[in-house]
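Annex B. Sample input.
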Amino acid sequence: MPSDVAILKPQHDRIVFAVKWGASIIQIMGYTATGFGWTPWNLYLFLIGVLGWFAVGAMWNDKALMLVHLVALGAMIAGMASG
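Annex B, continued. Sample output.
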């Protein structure tokens, strides 16, 4: 029903907003940790941020956003496994 959609949309938007900004702040923390040489904490922060942005891409049904973060996640995991 249209009324159900109208009720669920603002809640969905709030969730997307929270995940988007949370992931962004965590990624900025990852950049900061990298700048100060705080390994492996920087990688853990980046992993959380990348997963958050992948989730945003899924919630927006944005395949390009999901692809970029899926590739980034794969590269990070491969790098962590080899190091």
